[in-house]
């Protein structure tokens, strides 16, 4: 009897297991990724969209952009410096990361480095006891903002510059100071800028990058060649109309002027995930100059559409003045900029519409339907078509009876599984209104006319593997003045 009961129990368990397995087999899995993929730190960086740059130092007091390295430290005296004001301005304008020039080309250090006296310790500011980097970190932390640093490789003051080993040791020592004294640093900026008459010497970038990663595990390293974030190739804040986050790092080198076009567009066959950062100043110069005014709102919005709207992050420089504060005119313009972005994008005019697609992975219950493009997750929920479909893929927004009125189209890919789309077109009631190549994390189209339509279709003409669309938005930009039909 016991044997019989045991056999019956085993049969029941097997049947339950087989039933459970059959149920599991009905759950549709995500598609395979298209390599390369972003790291967690790169994804966090991409989602910031806006980063603030703070060019501040000796040049602020000499009305120059590139100092000579011979300026007297007594010149540096920002008597009203208030890093809390900087952080307040950044937070209210929507910046989640602030990057400061801890040392620019003149070699003057905004922190009390033990390896040189050409720093704040030799200035009258705070009676030689000040530390701009520390004050920034404290203020940023209070507002929940992350911190990044720029440490210029070119140093026009230090006598070790030009003596290769000595200077690389000095630079590494200062890197260690900055990355061990001030807590978490989320981005560090390297460039190859130097004058034509500068001594010819090699920077040990490989050593520097290794040290940075050892000391700050979640940091993103920016340079012309990454390894985490690349320069977009210009200082106008414009990415290429084609902009891949992928590129071949072996084709890159820091300070190489012949690769600017490659940096601007990336490479569809690139083996490295290295997204672009667009750096530009709110003023003409990088440092504060009394004679300059901030760019017009229309220009800042143009920059936004051509940076964030082309799969990049915008690094906007807002230089503190010689008092040590961000100027009122810059604060006003930043407030206008933030308000404009919120006005345009806080409402998705596609919400409440019916969403149709050429096909969907796993059918109606698969979890990859077109309705995902209207949820709040712009990264990990997405529309995916069927694997076996060979025809062109499309996704369509069908508005209510009154139709849709918009002049901005937003499309986002599920880049956590790779960047895929090579070419696409946008139709409104069957009429072509926009077309382009890459999409990436975010693509924005500001149309030449206000569109009234019942149906808006995005046609995927070509992609690596299955196209995965995570979000679609239709928006109205009242700051743009096209002709209305």
From TrEMBL:
Asked if the Swiss-Prot or TrEMBL record annotates the protein with the keyword Hydrolase, the reply is yes
A single Gene Ontology MF term assigned here is: alpha-L-fucosidase activity
Cellular location(s): Secreted, Extracellular space, Apoplast
Q: Report keywords, A-Z.
A: Apoplast, Glycoprotein, Glycosidase, Hydrolase, Secreted, Signal
One Gene Ontology cellular component term attached to this UniProt record is: lysosome
Q: Which PANTHER family match?
A: ALPHA-L-FUCOSIDASE, ALPHA-L-FUCOSIDASE-RELATED
What family does this chain come from, according to its entry? Answer: Belongs to the glycosyl hydrolase 29 family.
Q: What is this protein called?
A: alpha-L-fucosidase
Record the organism.
Tetracentron sinense (Spur-leaf)
């Amino acid at each position: 009897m016991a044997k019989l009961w045991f056999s019956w129990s085993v049969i029941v368990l097997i049947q339950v297991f087989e039933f459970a397995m059959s149920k599991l087999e009905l759950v549709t899995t995500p598609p395979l990724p298209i390599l390369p993929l972003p790291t967690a730190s790169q994804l966090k960086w991409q989602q910031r969209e806006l980063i603030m740059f703070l060019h501040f130092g000796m040049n602020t007091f000499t009305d120059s952009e590139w100092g000579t390295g011979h300026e007297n430290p007594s010149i540096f005296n920002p008597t009203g410096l208030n890093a809390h004001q900087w952080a307040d301005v950044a937070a209210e304008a929507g910046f989640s990361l602030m990057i400061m020039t801890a040392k620019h080309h003149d070699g003057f250090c905004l922190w009390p480095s033990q390896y040189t006296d050409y720093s704040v310790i030799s200035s009258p500011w705070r009676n030689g006891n000040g530390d701009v980097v520390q004050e920034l970190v404290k203020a940023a932390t209070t507002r929940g903002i992350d911190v990044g640093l720029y440490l210029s490789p070119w140093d026009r003051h230090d006598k070790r510059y030009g003596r290769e080993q000595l200077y690389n040791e000095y630079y590494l020592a200062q890197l260690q100071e900055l990355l061990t004294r001030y807590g978490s640093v989320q981005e560090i900026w390297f460039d190859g800028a130097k004058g034509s008459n500068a001594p010819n010497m090699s920077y040990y970038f490989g050593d520097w990058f290794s040290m940075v990663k050892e000391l700050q595990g979640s940091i993103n390293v920016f340079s012309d060649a990454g390894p985490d974030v690349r320069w977009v190739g210009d200082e106008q804040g414009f990415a290429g109309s084609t902009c891949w986050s992928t590129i071949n790092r072996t084709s890159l080198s820091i300070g190489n002027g012949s690769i600017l076009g490659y940096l601007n567009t990336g490479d569809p066959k690139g083996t490295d995930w290295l997204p672009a950062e667009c750096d530009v100043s709110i003023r003409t110069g990088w440092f504060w100059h009394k004679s300059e005014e901030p760019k017009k709102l229309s220009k800042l919005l143009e920059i936004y559409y051509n940076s964030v709207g082309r799969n990049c992050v915008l690094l906007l420089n807002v230089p503190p003045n010689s008092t040590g504060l961000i100027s009122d005119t810059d604060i006003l313009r930043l407030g206008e900029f933030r308000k404009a972005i919120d006005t345009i994008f806080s409402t998705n005019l596609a919400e409440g519409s019916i969403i149709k697609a050429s096909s969907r992975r796993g059918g109606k219950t698969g979890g990859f339907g077109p309705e995902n493009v209207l949820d709040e997750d712009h990264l990990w929920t997405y529309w995916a078509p069927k694997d076996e479909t060979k025809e062109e893929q499309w996704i369509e927004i069908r508005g209510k009876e009154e139709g849709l009125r918009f002049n901005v189209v937003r499309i986002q890919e599920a880049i956590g599984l790779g960047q895929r789309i090579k070419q696409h077109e946008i139709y409104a009631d069957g009429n072509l209104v926009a077309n382009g190549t890459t999409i990436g994390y975010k693509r924005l189209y500001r149309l030449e006319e206000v569109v009234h339509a019942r149906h808006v279709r995005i046609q995927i003409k070509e992609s690596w593997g299955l196209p995965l669309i995570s979000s679609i938005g239709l928006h109205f930009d009242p700051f743009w003045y096209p002709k209305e039909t």
